[in-house]
Each structure stands twice: as C-alpha cells, then as structure tokens.
Amino acid sequence: xxxVNLVTDLRTRTGxxxxxxxxxxKTTAGDGMGGIFYWDSTDSTTSDDAMNTxxxxxxxxxxxxxxxxxxSIQKTGSVLMSGGALQTTFGITHNLGVVPSTVFLSATTAAxxxxxxxxxxxxxxxxxxxxxxxxxGTNNVGLDWLVIA
Length: 149
Description:
By secondary structure, the protein is mainly beta. The chain has two domains: 2-66, no CATH class; 74-148, Immunoglobulin-like (Sandwich). Helix content is 0%, strand content 45%. It has strands at residues 2-6, 20-25, 35-40, 53-55, 63-66, 74-83, 89-93, 102-107, 116-119, 125-130, 137-148. The relative contact order is 0.20.
C-alpha cells in the first residue's frame, strides 16, 4: 500500500483500479484524521469534501474515497525506530483510547519491509514483531500505521 502524508496529497495522484492509499493525516501527519482511500474510477459527480472524497486536480472522472467503517475509530501515525542487531520487537504508541481490532502497517524504509506481525494490542500501543531482525541502525526501521477499533 502506498502512503502519503496528507489527504490533500491525493489531489495529485491518479489511481488505478484496486488502488489503495494510506494517508497519515488531514492537515498534519499524525493528526488522527488520516485513513485508507480507494480509487473509484467511474465517479464524476461526488463533490470533493476534502475529507472523505477527493477529486484529482484537473481530472473530471475518478475520485479517491475514504474506506468508512460505520462506528469505527481510526488513527494514523508514522514512526522511525532504531534497530538492534538481534532486535525483533518494536513497541509503537498509538493512544487510540480503545484496543484496536485492526492494525495496518506500511514500511517506509528498506529495513522495515521484512515479514512482520502485530501482537499485544492495548488502548495505547501495539507490538510489531519481525520474523528476522531488521538489522542494526539509527532510525532504520520506519513504519506508517493505521489502527481501527
């Protein structure tokens, strides 16, 4: 999945069928108003509301539409963590306030792109577990995340 900083960044990206993009925020990355958007290539009538439907600048047909889950609470963020040579677990604070049912991750660095899974979800954090250590380095493990409850 592609990640962009802001919802408004979608105005410069034409999608393709089955495209999904994670936005990290509406006005600033991590403001809690980001989310997952899908490309609707046939829509030419829904107004751009700068939140749930985004029209690409200069394009009359096609809209980015927020994936809405009724009654859900969503929050997004981005982290850079320093990995140790043998370190396979990384704690990420999300402060959603409730335990998320779903966590989406998108690697933003090469070291972070390995096989991984999430455990120990709480109302404030979750743990990312790698099957093999991403390697030692400073700020070498970068992830964008979305939690949904």
